[in-house]
Amino acid sequence: MVSWEGCNVMSTLVAQKQLAALIASALEQIIDQGMLNISDLPEINLEIPRDKSHGDFASNIALVLAKPAGKKPREIAEMIVENIDDQKFIDKVDIAGPGFINFFLSDQWLYNVLERIEAEKLDYGSSNFGAGEKVLLEFVSANPVGPMNIVNARAAAIGDTLARLFKASGYFVATEYYVNDAGVQTEIFGKSLLSRYRQINNPDYPFPDDGYPGDYIVDLAHELLNQNTALDWMTEDEQIEFCRTWGIDRMVDSQRQDLLDFNVKFDRWFRERELHQAKALENIIKILTERGYIYEAEGAKWFRSTAFGDDKDRVIIKNDGTYTYVTADIAYHYDKLKRGFTKLIDLLGPDHHGYIGRMKAAVQALGYSEDTLEILILQYVALLRDGQQVKMSKRAGEFITLKELLAEVGKDAARYFFIMRSLDSHLDFDLTLAAEQSSENPVYYIQYAHARICSIIRQAGAQSIAVKSVKDVSLQLLNHETEIDLMKKLAELPEEILLSTIERAPHRIARYALDLASLFHSFYTHCYIIGEKEELRDARLVLISCVRIVLERVLTLLGVSAPERM
RNA sequence: GCGCCUGUAGCUCAGGGGAUAGAGCAUCGGACUUCUAAUCCGAGAGCCGCAGGUUCGAAUCCUGCCAGGCGCGCCA
């Protein structure tokens, strides 16, 4: 049994849980009295009504029960309300509309929120929901033969924030970037680099037909020249191999640096070559063969992925004896599983959606459940400049790289813009707006709220006014409408973090940050702080200090900085 | 042809069974002798792509259609 002693409600999550328990016990009493005849209780959900006149929380339970119970919704609602135990934290309970039960809570629960924020600081909103489950989040994994593009950038921002959300929700998370450094593409890359290297002294040296045209390879060639390597004494094959490994290492280094500049740090950069060196591909084929999912046909070896619902079986060893990329990918995922991760999440671009079936099949063929692997598909990004779409052609070597994006709009705006839309949304990224440092830009709007609070606290400090502890101020003075709204929003953070994690929806946090900033700005214009009487001033300082903590918290989740001055 | 995503205010997007459908931008009108006007307050603006169905209740779920984006290799 839940104890109702004291008023321990301190977030919307807790409030909803407690109200649901109250309704459940009311229903039990009604059923015991024989007033209601239903076989089993449905789940009781509390929602926060859009309209404030509908209370702090509302339940539709009476409407849901109307049919199975064969009674009118309002009649059921009345019985429930009559049987709800009186609680100190409930001001009143109304029945409204077709049969909604609306709960109006005493403001005390909001003051408890401030106490909790003061106690937990930047941990406020965290939970142990994940119970330490080991999750491996793989994202970006861009080919190392070229610079990272705008979709990679979106994946980086979203993947990184998802990782932060999983951590906040009590999971053990590791992030990985898978480097395809073993395929045909890297060989073409090696040839391209060697050709550019030769062209420095011999402009007529041929460039491979299928070579990579970008200028970055020319830059790499000049860097290679300055390295004074033993390249010229090698055979042709050795030269290509050297260019490949040296060049890929340089590409990976620069990708790693670009991502660090974007506030994205991977726990591990996993090289495909490690799998080959460890004979992991041979091993995975052996395992799948033993399990009976490999067969030979048309001179190749196939993985029977259709056994688990895939559209067609997949070639795993080509008729020329080499492996397909799927083979390495299965080996990589098996490696993840062997390392003890019980949940694998891959964040991929929309061109990879056909990949879901075969990889889920592979995981199952290896003896794991289908939902061990979760593949999130990210939709494309269209870049706009001055309202016009920026055309990008990879073949012509024209595309905006992550590095260029950061130079143009900055890390904070870029992160926010990528995260503010749901994964499913085909994002229109407005470069002009993102680069603008004005009120039209939501990033600055949120950061400005944080900087404003810091400024007030600085001003107060200059007048020797310190921010007191929550328990030393008169919280009941915080009763202005904008103050109540602000505290309600603070109360929502734990729920928001949890839902953002469960729904894999980082955009919810971006929106929450914007809403909180908006409520603060509104409060700021309606309520003074430093000029007010001491008691009210101190209470308000506590309030804005809590708002500041939560703003810093959500900005950190987004990977955006929380400036103290602007 | 098959698969995935999308279609909501002039624009970009939230909401994904519940009460009068929301936000930002844009437009229009107001607010600075005091803590940052990078702000606030207010107004107008919508057959929620179309047509059926399920439901006490559908923007939300199901079916079909229309439109846009992206896939459907022994490429990665």
Give a description of the structure.
Strand 3 (90-96) and strand 4 (100-105) form a beta hairpin. The chain has helices at 12-32, 61-69, 73-82, 108-120, 150-168, 184-201, 215-225, 236-261, 272-277, 280-290, 325-338, 355-365, 402-409, 411-419, 431-435, 442-462, 481-491, 493-502, 507-526, 534-558, and strands spanning 46-47, 57-59, 90-96, 100-105, 134-138, 172-179, 268-271, 294-297, 300-303, 314-317, 343-348, 373-377, 381-385, 388-389, 427-430. It has 20 helices and 15 strands. It has 3 domains: 12-106, 2-Layer Sandwich (Gyrase A, domain 2), CATH 3.30.1360.70; 139-273 and 379-435, HUPs (Rossmann fold, 3-Layer(aba) Sandwich), CATH 3.40.50.620; 439-558, Isoleucyl-tRNA Synthetase, Domain 1 (Orthogonal Bundle). It has 566 residues and is of the alpha/beta class. Helices cover 49% and strands 12% of the residues. The chain binds one RNA strand of 76 nucleotides through helix 2, strand 10, helix 11, strand 15 and helix 16.
What count of structural domains?
Answer: 3
CATH fold category name of the largest domain: Rossmann fold
CATH architecture level-2 label of the largest domain: 3-Layer(aba) Sandwich
Q: Helix tally?
A: 20
Cα-to-Cα separation, first versus last residue: 50 Å
